[in-house]
Amino acid sequence: MTAPTPQIPLIDLNDGRAIPQLGFGTYQVPPADTEKVVTAALEAGYRHFDTAQMYGNEDGVGRAIAASGVPREELWLTTKLNNSFHERSAALEATERSLEALGGRIDLYLVHWPLAMHDDVARVWEVMEEVRSDHPVDSIGVSNFTPANLARLSEAGLSTPTVNQIESNPYFVNDAVRAACADRGIAVEAWSPLAQGAVFDDPQLTALSEQVDRSVSQVVLRWVLQRGDIVFPKSSNPERMRQNLELFDFELTDEQMASISALHNGTRSGPDPDTFDWRG
Ligand SMILES: NC(=O)c1ccc[n+]([C@@H]2O[C@H](COP(=O)([O-])OP(=O)(O)OC[C@H]3O[C@@H](n4cnc5c(N)ncnc54)[C@H](OP(=O)(O)O)[C@@H]3O)[C@@H](O)[C@H]2O)c1
């Protein structure tokens, strides 16, 4: 049976909409398992889901949602334009496929990677603006955009993205990009908040988790929330899914927050946007 959804704060976006600050990530959830995993996440109480054309699992997300009976207006669905579809006609076709998979509406649609070594990000963003006007796509944003990529959009006189989804975790805090987003009124979504599992081997995080009597995952996710970012941890395990939702009945002190930020050592969990060149 579906658990009650905890009260999740909303983050205001610069287009007048508001996004739930905590959701569920689906990267590396295999397509064949996605319907089952997302159904379990819905049962655990998640209502905000992050998928992507690149993950190959939008169909499973859409099937789980359709079967759940949860009213669509209670859900937030984010997906992302894949790297090979930046050109206008390919982007429009890919958008149609995503809409079909996800039940006809997308809350937030992101440019997944800038690929600025090949493409002018301003041209891609013009296509996103067209998609938002002509399709049931409510908000548009970017992912993995550097400050230079964001500056290119403003130089071209285009609209400001609502969000920038970037890697951010204790080992790669990404504060320069977060500051560039804050300056422009762009909300930050923190991907790989658990450094894809690396946080669980960290003695300092283990010690802190014992001190506050919470799991390492809860401590790190709470750190992301207190920094004001949006977050959507991935887990295929229903018990861990539930644990990752229980973040609103404790607080980290300023000192504890600073001790987690001090773990930054510049180690990324994923690719560097300045060099990532995958267009599969
Ligand atoms: N825009 C982008 O370029 C981009 C890139 C990467 C990710 N993302 C988004 O960000 C989301 C989150 O990032 P991520 O999936 O890379 O990694 P993550 O959420 O940092 O970590 C996921 C890993 O942590 C484990 N885990 C989760 N909760 C746990 C808990 N309570 N206790 C112990 N282990 C736990 C999971 O294992 P189990 O499944 O076994 O629990 C999995 O191995 C993605 O799913 C995706 O939606 C976006």
UniProtKB/TrEMBL annotation:
InterPro entries: AKR, Aldo/ket_reductase_CS, NAD(P)_OxRdtase_dom_sf, NADP_OxRdtase_dom. Keywords: NADP, Oxidoreductase. CDD domains: AKR_AKR1-5-like. Residues 22-263 form the NADP-dependent oxidoreductase domain. The record marks K80 as: Lowers pKa of active site Tyr. Pfam families: Aldo_ket_red. Substrate binds at H112. Belongs to the aldo/keto reductase family. PANTHER family: 2,5-DIKETO-D-GLUCONIC ACID REDUCTASE, NADP-DEPENDENT OXIDOREDUCTASE DOMAIN-CONTAINING PROTEIN. This is Oxidoreductase. It comes from Dietzia psychralcaliphila.
